[in-house]
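Quick question, first post here. What does this chain look like in 3D?
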Amino acid sequence: MSTVPRILHLSLVVGSRLIDSDGRRIGEVTDVLVSLGGEEYPPVTGIVARVAGREVFVPADALGDIEPGRIVLARPRIDLQPFQRRDNEVLLKHDLLDRQLINVDGARIVRANEIEIARVDGWWRVVGVDTGVRSLLRRLLPRTVAPHVQTPSFVDWASLEPFTGHIPTIRLRVGHPKLARLHPAELADLVEAAPRDHGEEIIASLHDDPEREADLFEELGDEHQLEFVEDRSDAEVAALLDRMEVDDAADLVAQLDEDRRASVLALVAPVQQRRLRTLLGYEPTTAGGLMSPEFVAVYLQATREETLERVRRSSAPGDAVAWVFVINARHRYRGAVSLPDLLRADDGAQVVELVSHTRSVAPDAGLGDIARLMTDYDLTVVPVLDDQERPLGVVTVDDLLEIVIPPAERRFGIFGSG
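> Answer (accepted):
Ran it through. Tokens below.
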């Protein structure tokens, strides 16, 4: 756009006089309709007005000038149709004004204290919202004064996603494509900050991407994990657990009551079920309870190339394969090799020549022991060994931080009023 369009405040459009082409007042504007869908700035599809005691719909192409306090019809005769909601349409005042929205660029929940529309590309469109307190004060002022009150809290609509679960013509039809910009941890922050129904809506928007939904659940705090699975069937919870990292899945299973835990575990895939039952046998704040059983281990005689191929084929999380365990023929742990050292090694080098640390912990090791070991030896992962020195799993620094630093302290300063 070569010029900045003139912004109209919704609060000064709603309540305006509806004027016919001869200048006569025929009604009053009660709301403005827009269509949500693929366009970055939703177009106004019409207005709702009260004419002769009934609610009527006036399409956008029948509207002429729109100014604070008055809307003039573009032609002498129009068909004043009874108002009826259509798919993907929302009422700006009724459905969005004074409600919460997601500011995707800021990864925060904001409140639409004012909705701004402007003429763009031949259409009146929603171009943003005002989240500041001054916009609320402006709505209390006389219409002759209010247009001159400026507020600095404009948020571009291109970075916003409205919650639409309460709108009957939108529910389950319009997703939240802008949420794809956010990391699962940011999505979890939004879910935890929002009311229950809004959190459900964010999670529901990920149903077509089950892996991303599982990533979100891994980031949720214990209380919220339990809250958002309580209404799911056992089969649905089991399917979610199948997609989660096993240590995070074990944390969720441990929160279920005993009867439901058994019925859910019975529906989990056999491999994941076996891993979960192993982890659930340990105290949650010990190395055994924290560890992930997914890691890469190779024999002493493995070459650099063979080891890198094992890493490539592994489905273990990235942080777990930052180190590769080295074992002997009896599967006893003999040390670990860092991925950078593997990449820098000469072709054909054997991993036994590259071992750079041999530290480990037992399954019953506490948080303090693990933290001291990681700190003293500058480690990001620590292998967990059984009493025969065989690797059982790996504790990553991320696993430790999730226990040591509560979610409320990890997620500070993310949300604000706008």
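Residues 87 and 168 are 9 Å apart (CA to CA).
The mean pLDDT is 88.
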